[in-house]
Amino acid sequence: MTRQCARSLTLAVLLVMLALTGLSPLRAVEPDERLADPAQEMRARALSAGLRCLVCQNQSIDDSNAPLARDLRILLRERIAAGDDDAAIKRDLVARYGDFILLQPPFNPRTLVLWTAPFVLLAAGGWVLLRRSRRPSALEHTTPLTEQERENLRRLLAQDQPDNPSGHPPHRP
User: Fold this and answer.
1) What would the pLDDT profile of 120-133 be if each residue is shown by its tens digit?
2) Which of 63, 58, 50, 62 lies closest to 93, judged by CA?
3) Average pLDDT, the chain
4) Where are the domains of the chain?
5) Between the CA atoms of 67, 68, 72 and 74, what dihedral angle is there, to the nearest 10 degrees?
6) Helices (H), strands (E): how many in the chain?
7) Cβ–Cβ < 8 Å for 34, 70
């Protein structure tokens, strides 16, 4: 396979992957869960898109097929139909399940590590790379060969040469 062909194939695979990431995920909301009022259903969808499925952990409850996610979607819609506002619904869910239920947890002392860890790890990685780049390599600390070591090296190299059956080192100035 030529390099050009390999590059074209790689580009095609990347474009397909990019196109697939742009597709919206299939929603797990069942027809019997939906609210009759379209405005309330839109509120429920917007709110549930920001709530984490506690079983799947990296999906919203809107995207998850887990029974707990279904129960949370139904609870959410019941609260919306009862007239509760979004802030009250979120506050009650956070009180029950903690900040973990929010896909975007707030910045507070309890979530400080969550928000700062990526930056700390990035800075630590940069520091390690900087230290390694400034460290002199092992080749910089080598001393030149002595005349005896050079002679031993010539002899060993001469023995490995197929065109030198005598095993004697060739004459070098």
Assistant:
1) 999 999 999 998 88
2) 50
3) 80
4) 26-108, 111-160
5) 20
6) 6, 0
7) no
Half-sphere exposure of 100 (CA within 13 A, CB side): 9
Q: Which of 26, 97, 28 has its CA nearest to residue 69?
A: 28
Output the 3-class SS for 61-117: CCCCCCHHHHHHHHHHHHHHHCCCCHHHHHHHHHHHHCHHHECCCCCCHHHHHHHHH
Who has greater pLDDT, 73 or 136?
73
- Measured CA angle at 161 (ends 160, 166), to 5 deg: 95
Which residue did the predictor score with more confidence, 20 or 46?
Answer: 46
pLDDT of residue 163: 66
The helix (H) or strand (E) run that includes residue 163 is none
* pLDDT score for 18: 59
CATH homologous superfamily of 26-108: Cytochrome C biogenesis protein (1.10.8.640)
Phi, psi for 102 (deg, rounded to 5): -85, 130
Tokens of 13: 């695979």
**What single-letter amino acid sits at 28?**
A
